[in-house]
Amino acid sequence: MQHVWFQAIELAERTPEERNRYVDFLRAVSILMVVTGHWLVAAPWYVDGELIPGDLLELRPETQWMTWIFQVMPIFFIVGGYANAVSLESAKRRGVDYAGWLATRLYRLVTPLLGLLLGWSLLALALYFFGVEGDTTRLVTRAALIPTWFLAIYIAIVMLAPLTYKAWEKWGFVSLFALAGIGALVDIAFFAADLRWLGWSQYFWVWLSVHHLGYAWRDGRLGSPARLLAWSALGFVALWLLIFKGPYPFAMVGSPDEGLSNTLPPKITLLALGICQFGLLLSIEKPMRRLLSSVRLWAATVLINSMIMTLYLWHITVMIVVVVIAYFADGAGLGFEPGTSSWWLSRIVWVAVLYAILLPLTFALSALERRSRPADAPAPSTARQVLGALMICLGIAYLALFGFGSAPLPFLDIIAFFTVVAGSALSGLLHGFR
């Protein structure tokens, strides 16, 4: 761990002055907020020898205001838009074609995912041979693999980035408003015409709109801090109207309201929230960039970004392991009723213990993420990479929804797993496991 820290300091000291360090800082903070938020809303309760899984947002609806703070996925997509714009500009200068650009982007995203899926597939297999019920295996593995939903959609957005960036360069905010407009129409159809199936397309329209804001940031088209604060206020007003005068639920995370969610599938409320958060955060960009000139703060940011996918992908797994250990220790630490004052006090220890386990594990598992794609590895053709990436997206979307065990159709979970592996092989992404 100490060696990795010194490496981060060395990289921090060599960072070019023109790099926008605030982009990396927001990415790091966003992931830490997501991790901490997931741990806080999880409310397992040990009562009379029985472990009761619980969701704080459902058990204590008055806590749903927290989701307005901890729902920072819009920031992560905005940062992704900025980073994709930078990488596309760099690839164009260096004469790198789409296949070469995509190979590098996919490698960083997918290789940490393969480690997680392999680990949980082996564990699911072990649970099967030990006679554990399929429903139990499904519950546990689904919880552990839920974080992979992000990659299912983000990989698709990365594949589309060259096209959407060209649209931004040609039409600017018109392209953003077009995407947002489609998202609004889909939501209208969702609520007014009860076309629930159409709502699943919002994974594209909503997140593509949010991703587009990163292009606007990269081009410097968002204006002065005062104008950014106006954007933020506009986003807040839109969000308030959608929720309190419209049909949208209050919580910005999960599905605490029966049959309705802002995230499953996404709604335009997430775009409004993203504009609100983003305008506020960008209004302080200049002082934050000065603050990030500190070597230690910047080194910490570099360190987190070097293992960010590993940190994100494994945080639910760590929580599951701790809950299982506590269960077999007669519910040690899980005896507080969720939402009570004693339970909230216990959250300090809960989060501290989880980070104390997650961070060393992340250091151990993130070596693959920190590796660059082998320089001598040829980039597969565009057709191979796109087909392989689509297979990966399809496989992990299924596993994020259902996990392993008790598949809706026989062997569908196994098929999904091997679809991800086959897609990775087709895309040339298995070099990292050699």
List the SSEs and their pairings.
Elements: H1 2-13, H2 21-41, E1 45-47, E2 50-52, H3 56-59, H4 67-70, H5 73-94, H6 98-129, H7 134-145, H8 149-171, H9 173-192, H10 202-219, H11 225-244, H12 269-282, H13 285-291, H14 295-306, H15 308-328, H16 341-365, H17 367-370, H18 382-402, H19 412-426
What's the short story on this structure?
The chain has 434 residues and is mainly α.
Describe the structure in your own words.
The two termini are about 25 Å apart. The chain has one domain (about 1-160, about 285-434). The relative contact order is 0.16. The radius of gyration is 22 Å and the shape is globular. The chain has a two-stranded antiparallel ribbon. It has helices spanning about 1-15, 20-40, 55-60, 65-70, 75-95, 100-130, 135-145, 150-170, 175-190, 200-220, 225-245, 270-280, 285-290, 295-305, 310-330, 340-365, 365-370, 380-400, 410-425, and strands spanning about 45, 50. The protein is built from 19 helices and two strands. The mean pLDDT is about 90. With about 425 residues, it is mainly α. A hairpin with a 2-residue loop joins strand 1 (about 45) and strand 2 (about 50).
| Overall outline | globular
Helical content stands at over 70%
What's the β-strand tally? 2
What separation lies between the terminal Cα atoms? 24 Å
Could you spell the SSE succession in H and E letters?
HHEEHHHHHHHHHHHHHHHHH
Question: Which properties best describe this structure?
Answer:
single chain; 434 residues; mainly alpha; two-stranded antiparallel sheet; 19 helices; 2 strands; 1% strand
